């Protein structure tokens, strides 16, 4: 499904590459935990996968389309949910924001309303977006992404700032998407909410892919890259030899 091959990327005007020789393979339907410290290059890699930027070196291949070259096709098949909902929401109400994705045909409006209900926003259909809570704005962005029915869902730090119930809801959504066979890449600086769900984990460190593989194997070495290993995983490892 996805092949990132020896990708390097430098922002215009910046000297140092933000991504440096990154290669990553993702199977169709996988849930990938893309982790790393702040500034390690996670958002930049997601933007390349979404076709928003082109690699300076190397290629990003998603579903048979390659960048550089086919960024438009990459954009069409993926949905990227940004960390900052305020940068993503373009409508002035829930209705307007979702209809900007679906269009205003009768069936499209019904689909948008249904999605608003599914994300708990049905009662806010006509609400100005500035009256939504932080969590509701994040849900609006997730609902808009779901309406696009992407082949690849890219979520940038979706857990940050969520309270426990919202975190559980998001975990439920990821599980539901995985069961539907959707390929999902989720960036996190803290692996805790995803460690037990991810099929694979990839760790970026200063723009390079430091670790990639099964979560158990990656977590074994994750602390060396500044990642907090979940207590539950640590406890299991400690107890296991005595069991
Ligand atoms: P992460 O998502 O892991 O926090 P980012 O991909 O956002 O990392 O950022 C990686 C590096 O790229 C950081 O040093 C950041 O300052 C830099 N960077 C991000 N966006 C831009 C930009 N638009 N222009 C220049 N540098 C940027």
From TrEMBL:
PROSITE patterns: ABC_TRANSPORTER_1, ABC_TRANSPORTER_2
Start and end residues of each ABC transporter domain: 2-231
Organism lineage string: Bacteria, Pseudomonadati, Thermodesulfobacteriota, Desulfovibrionia, Desulfovibrionales
Signal peptide: none
Molecular functions (GO terms): ATP binding; ATP hydrolysis activity; ATPase-coupled transmembrane transporter activity
Protein name: ABC transporter related protein
Membrane is among the record's keywords: no
A GO cellular-component term linked to this record: ATP-binding cassette (ABC) transporter complex
Keyword set includes Manganese: no
Matches recorded under Pfam families: ABC_tran
Membership in a protein family: Belongs to the ABC transporter superfamily.
Domain of life: Bacteria
The species this protein was found in: Oleidesulfovibrio alaskensis (strain ATCC BAA-1058 / DSM 17464 / G20)
Keywords: ATP-binding, Nucleotide-binding, Transport
């Amino acid at each position: 499904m996805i092949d990132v091959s020896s990708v390097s990327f430098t922002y215009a005007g910046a000297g140092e590459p933000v991504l440096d020789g990154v290669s990553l393979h993702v199977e169709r339907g996988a849930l990938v935990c893309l982790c790393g410290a702040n500034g390690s290059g996670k958002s930049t890699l997601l933007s390349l996968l979404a076709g928003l930027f082109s690699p300076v070196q190397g290629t990003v291949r998603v579903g048979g389309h390659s960048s550089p070259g086919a960024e438009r096709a990459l954009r069409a098949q993926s949905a990227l949910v940004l960390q900052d909902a305020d940068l993503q929401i373009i409508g002035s109400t829930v209705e307007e924001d979702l209809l900007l994705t679906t269009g205003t045909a009768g069936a499209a409006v019904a689909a948008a309303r249904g999605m608003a209900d599914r994300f708990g926003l049905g009662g806010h259909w006509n609400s100005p977006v500035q009256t939504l809570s932080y969590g509701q704005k994040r849900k609006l962005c997730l609902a808009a992404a779901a309406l696009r029915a992407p082949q690849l869902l890219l979520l940038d730090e979706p857990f940050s700032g969520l309270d426990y119930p919202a975190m559980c809801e998001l975990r439920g959504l990821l599980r539901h998407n995985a069961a539907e066979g959707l390929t999902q890449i989720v960036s996190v600086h803290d692996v805790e909410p995803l460690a037990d769900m991810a099929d694979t984990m990839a760790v970026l460190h200063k723009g390079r892919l430091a670790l990639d593989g099964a979560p158990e194997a990656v977590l074994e070495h994750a602390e060396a890259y500044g990642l907090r290993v979940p207590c539950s995983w640590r406890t299991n490892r400690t107890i296991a030899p005595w069991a």
